[in-house]
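Worked example 2:
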Amino acid sequence: MVVYRRTIAAAAAGLAAAGAVTAAAVAASHSGAQHAAPAADVRAAPAVGRPSAAPGAYLARLRTVRTIGSTVPSNGDVNPYGIVVLQHSAGRLHAGNVLVSNYNDKANLQGTGSTIVQITPRGKLSVFARITKAMLPSSGSCPGGIGLSTALVTLPGGWVVVGSAPSANGQAATAKAGCLIVLDNQGRLRETLHGDGINGPWDATAVSTGKTADLFVTNAFNGTAAGKGTIVRKGTVVRIALRLSGSAAPRLAGAAIIATGLAEQASAAAFVLGPTGVGLGRGDILYVADTATSTITAIPGALHRNGSAGPGLTITAGGSLSQPLGLAIASDGDILTVNGGNGKIVETTPAGRQVATELLDNSGSPAGAGALFGLTVASSGNVYYVDDVANTLRLLR
């Protein structure tokens, strides 16, 4: 049964009934054996499961899945997390292509991936950037080094911002605060943003207007290691204001922590469960997927507030949600999330009604566990997503 939550206090009672699978099952593909990367398959095939959708639901029109191609570059990085569709061409970036960040290295150690790949709609892969610790401006400019997370956005002029949520050995116990890395349209590192509340940047979204941009970054490393596997409510969302000025790198104009008290949990298998997917909806409301509690929360006044909204307003919990990770806003304003627990995509209205589900991936054990992470909605209305089990980019259309 779907559980709708309209107040923060009411949310607590529903979390135990969320029905999520274990963190170990979710992480099966992230920390287990590597999978061979398949060749590009541009043939459309039916989605794994028939969509269960209310009349008029956004997902009701999307019925087939196409495998675009592998996300594995020549250095062997795996575990694709972040994803963004390029809207404009600039430098080495080409409109219509997709950027994907890899979180694990060739040895499948979490928090050590160093590459962003660019993939064409027909599956041709090239490396847009490979970032090493030696490229950092200074030893303290990105605490812990390089481990490219789901936080991946583009800004006007072809600027690319990617989060680093690094680990020394693939374990959450050695995770450090990391940073945001700013690349130009040639894939060159131009600067890093660190401090100002950035602590394990796990996902991000951005809004640009003229010569300014606002980044909303979820942070999942606030006390997770110290919690030693228990849930700690220290996850945050930080709004980063940037000034844009042509060929000059974006400059920090300000930062504000606009949400606090979100659930986080360190896991030997899943690395960390915490606030992940984030998207700005209508009415200046920011939506956040909290993986550890299988909830979606809303942060009102996200673009303008100077203080924290606490953990926000829980609009829905449990039901079809099973450890939601990536989040994107559909053209009709509905919220799309992908489950780490069972390979499903879920559509939720801003009012908190879960109106559609569809099984995208049934690989793994339990079926679909650990297969999905980042997703984004293309201008066509189709949905791109990454498959962590097969290390591929896929399209739901």
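The first strand starts at residue 2 and ends at 4. The domain at 2-396 is CATH 2.120.10.30 (Neuraminidase).
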